[in-house]
Automatic annotation (TrEMBL):
Domain ABC transmembrane type-1: 87-267
Keywords for the protein's UniProt record, in alphabetical order: Cell membrane, Membrane, Transmembrane, Transmembrane helix, Transport
UniProt keyword Magnesium, yes or no: no
Family (UniProt): Belongs to the binding-protein-dependent transport system permease family.
Annotated organism of origin: Micromonospora globbae
InterPro entries named in the record: MetI-like, MetI-like_sf
Protein name: ABC transporter permease
Sequence intervals crossing the membrane: 36-53, 99-119, 153-172, 193-214, 248-270
UniProt keyword Ligase, yes or no: no
Length: 284
């Protein structure tokens, strides 16, 4: 015997079933946190710990000013236009040095990576250059080029160029030989092989080198801005040390940290744009 439920009784069960099937999706949307926000949680936690340590008296405010004092110093310098001037001067030097270093280091890496003779001539020379700290060249650069912008930009370019060369050269030599053999079998010419096989295969290594190069650029900037300059973040740091302005010293450290995060974000953006064809492990 078949029992037929009244039509009015059916909708009562359907919403319950709909809620059961859709509840996990709604919960997933609520709990999902944007990745960029998760990436900023670490720095935000450090600032919170800094504020807590200052509020509880763990940190001496005379030696390590609280966040409010550093923020007040930043606001004062920004209102005077001094902060923008120094940051702009440093960013411009880094941009120039990075551009020269990427072009020079990348070109030398390609010459050494594509040719055995080039590798024999260039690679040993670059290994010697890598072993010599470019900061030790500061006195010589001053004597050779004077105290203008030239030695500052060149010092940054040397640090960037070495980082680009090492990673790009290793990436070129790390391209799968089977891909090159397959391209040769298919009749691909030398120029097409370089453009479509070798350089795309070396692109991930180049971007790793760019990430290290940007860190080297800002590190080189600290020494570069000790060369008779009155503008730049390094100049602010030197002035803060001379006058024992601890709030300014902490502010400069925060500036370097923020610029480092922005540099990292730039390289990550390039990786997403240029390496969209590559699928790698992104963590569980």
């Amino acid at each position: 015997m078949t029992v037929v439920l009244p039509t009015s009784a059916r909708p009562a069960a359907e919403p319950a079933l709909h809620e059961l099937t859709c509840a996990p999706r709604r919960r997933g949307r609520v709990l999902r946190v944007p990745r960029w926000l998760r990436a900023l949680s670490g720095p935000a936690l450090l600032i919170a710990l800094w504020w807590l340590a200052s509020a509880t008296g763990v940190l001496n405010p005379q030696l390590f000013p609280p966040p409010a004092a550093v923020a007040a110093t930043a606001a004062r310098l920004a209102a005077d236009g001094e902060l923008q001037t120094h940051v702009g001067a440093s960013v411009w030097r880094v941009l120039q040095g990075t551009a020269y270093g990427v072009l020079g280091g990348g070109a030398v890496a390609v010459l050494a990576g594509l040719s055995r003779v080039g590798a024999d001539v260039i690679d040993s020379t670059m290994q010697v250059a890598k072993a010599v700290p470019n900061f030790a060249l500061t006195p010589l650069l001053i004597m050779w080029m004077g105290i203008d912008e030239g030695p500052k930009v060149l010092l940054i370019a040397l640090g960037v160029g070495i980082a680009i060369y090492i990673n790009t050269y290793s990436a070129i030599r790390g391209v799968d030989a089977q891909l090159v053999e397959a391209a040769t079998t298919l009749g691909v010419g030398r120029a097409a092989m370089v453009l479509h096989v070798i350089l795309p295969g070396a692109l991930p290594g180049f971007l790793v080198g760019l990430r290290l190069a940007l860190s080297s650029a800002w590190l080189s900037l600290i020494f570069a801005e000790t060369i008779n300059t009155t503008e730049g973040i390094g100049f602010l740091m030197a002035r803060a040390q001379t006058l024992l302005q601890f709030d300014l010293s902490v502010l400069v450290l925060l500036l370097y940290a923020v610029i480092g995060l922005l540099s990292y974000a730039l390289v990550r953006f390039l990786e997403r744009r240029l390496l969209g064809w590559r699928r790698g492990f992104e963590g569980a």
